[in-house]
Amino acid sequence: MTPQxxxxxxxxxxxxxxxxxxxxxxxxxxDQTVATALGPAHGAMxxxxxxxxxxxxxxHTTTRVFALIPVLSGPLTMRQVRREARRR
Amino acid sequence: xxxxxLSVHVLAGIVLVGPVTVATSLFTRYAPTADHPAADTSxxxxxxxxxxxxxxxxxxxxxxxxxxxxLVLAMVQGRTTExxxxxxxVLTAVAGALLALRIAPAQSEALSVPxxxxxxxxLSMLAGIFNLLWAVVVVLMIVRPGSDYS
Lengths: 88, 150
Hints:
The complex is a heterodimer. Chain A starts with a helix and ends with a helix. Helix content of chain A is about 80%, strand content about 0%. Chain A is built from four helices and no strands. Helix content of chain B is about 75%, strand content about 0%. Chain B contains five helices and no strands. Chain B has helices spanning about 1-30, 45-60, 65-75, 85-110, 120-145. In chain B, helix 2 runs antiparallel to helix 4. At the A-B interface, helix 2 of A face helix 3 and helix 4 of B.
């Protein structure tokens, strides 16, 4: 696995964690402070995954498109990273 | 707290991002080309190009402090939903990815396998886009369009 794919995999995992925490908070206690802190953090993770997939070298088009889908880009990119690693 | 974060944010922006913008621009001037003899160091100099590549990578990695502290500052100030902050975040993400995923690897390739200069032209364009993105971000930070207090 290339360093680029490792970074993309780690970022997408962090994005998935942040979106799960965010949605979990929304469905349970809905604490405003938690939402205020996690929202921008998740936004930053989403952006990081999106630009890494868009500007990364030699990535499949599916990987680039999937990384742009809000909420689902975390798990989809994690799957794509495994596929990209197998393809090489 | 806000003053401290803002000071770190601005200082890191000047000290860490500044050298990267200069290094990426100058790299193409000093990087070797295949038709230029390596012995002639008057115009193109591999050692200088290597140093510029090191600055690009090292300072570029440390410059991650700037957006991280900036985001924390925006959270503390409750400004994360303001349009100028969001636009600046997107532009910064694009600039960072451009540096890490395109410019730095292309510099490393240009150092190891010099060609007729066409890869340096492309690199020069990327460096220009990178610097333009930072200029736009800095203007956004000053003008703050969409805020009611600038």
